[in-house]
Amino acid sequence: MNSSPVKVFISKSIIYILLVALAVSFGCSGFEKVLKSKDYEFKYKKALEYYAKKDHYRYLTLFEQLSPIYKGTMRSDTIEYYLAQGNYHQGDYLLAGHYFDKFRKTFPRSAFTEDAEFMYAYCFYMSSPRAELDQDNTQAAISAFAEFIARYPNSQRMGEVNKIIHELRDKLIEKSYLSSKLYYKIGDYKAAIVAIRNSVKEFPNTKYREEQFFLILKSSYLLADNSVPEKRKERFQSTVDEYYTFISEYPNSKYVDEAKKMYDASMKVLQESN
Questions:
Q1: Among 36, 143, 172, 262, which one has the highest count of C-beta atoms within 10 angstroms of its own C-beta?
Q2: Is 193 exposed, middle or buried (0-12, 13-18, 19+ CB in 10 A)?
Q3: pTM for the whole thing?
Q4: Per residue in 229-246, pLDDT tens?
Q5: What's the CA gap between 274 and 267, in Å, rounded?
């Protein structure tokens, strides 16, 4: 009696699963033997093999075992460098950065030092969050890359470093823009004027500059319009001043019509108060 296609398929699937499980089991068994081995030369060579195969977990595990054993030897810098690389490839940028920092200070003349200096900065870059969040790691990355440039001005990585620094600075600019605009969004117009002016002062030539000048004008107008009677005249006069500043800077702005309406409304209040 012939087996049904379904039974044949199930049988083949079971055989395949068993073979895979056997292969994995054998691989784990082989790695367990390496882990338990007291032949450190053999373990060191296997760690390098795993590194070449990008088996990050296994080579990292082995190098962690070998680190205290080879401390102070000719292989110490190699092991410590691969420890840092292993943590980086595992996605632990904080720990990797710590290892790269430790490496560059411990082995200033190693063949790996320039790369470790770069990776120390790069770990901060990889830890840099989106612009809305705290930018301490972004600042740290810029400082670390600046240090790299000072130490290796002729590095082949200079183009990449400059590109990354530009990206990081753009993030700081965006952070400054978003933070200052937040005061406008929540209706704290007095604080918005101060914050946006500070942002423009810190980053004077950005893609947000036109909008920021307009937001200063609009915040000034809304502050005046919501003021108590005794402060309205003074604040509407400030709005008129901000209008002239804005229009002289951006005479063809897409915000011109709205700006003119605020100017006209401000002038009307000032004329009526005289």
A1: 262
A2: buried
A3: 0.82
A4: 999 999 999 999 999 999
A5: 11
